[in-house]
Amino acid sequence: MHTLYRALSNESHAGLGITDLYVIEDERSAIGMSFEPDPVDSSRDSGLAIAAGLLFLAINADTQARKEPSWLPKLEQVARGLGVPLEIVRADGSTA
Known about the structure:
Blueprint: H1 2-12, H2 16-22, E1 23-25, E2 33-35, H3 45-67, H4 72-82
Antiparallel strand pairs: 1-2
Helix pairs in contact: 1-3
């Protein structure tokens, strides 16, 4: 669900997905790029695949760290560095 949210919000907020879609290289422009009001919507499926892959790797890392408690401090260190909580919260608000 979170991966789908991130993919859809990338298309609806002024982020890199929107920038990539509406900004084109333009040698005639003083800054080398310009706004394209009618963009050709090329396939951007790879963004969803990358997000899903990273989510899978995060879940796998969490699962492995919980199986091998000696890995948990490393996972906690990574989570702190990323500024994310280590606790998994389900869609209904309960915790794992």
